[in-house]
Write a structure and sequence with these properties.
Elements (H helix, E strand, L loop, with lengths): L4 H26 L1 H4 L6 H22 L4 H7 L5
């Protein structure tokens, strides 16, 4: 009396899931720096800020609305 086909499939799927989870855990311990989030450099932050300003200007021109008050309210004072 052996296991049914569906029972074998469930066992194989659970074993594969366990193997993948184990491999991910080991890889996370071995290479933690490659998986962690790195904040962008100040140059990149400045560049992206400028790109957003350009896009806000384009949206303002296309919509015909004054979005300057929205932009000024969204900016945080820099020290």
């Amino acid at each position: 009396m052996g296991l049914s086909s569906s029972a074998i499939i469930v066992i194989v799927l659970i074993a594969a899931l366990g193997a993948v989870a184990t491999a991910a855990g080991i890889f996370g311990v071995i290479n933690p720096d490659e998986d962690s989030f790195k904040s962008p450099s100040p140059e990149q932050q400045q560049h992206m800020r400028r790109v957003r300003e350009i896009h806000f200007d384009i949206i303002e021109r296309e919509s015909g609305r004054n979005m300057k008050s929205f932009q000024e309210g969204a900016q945080t004072p820099q020290k």
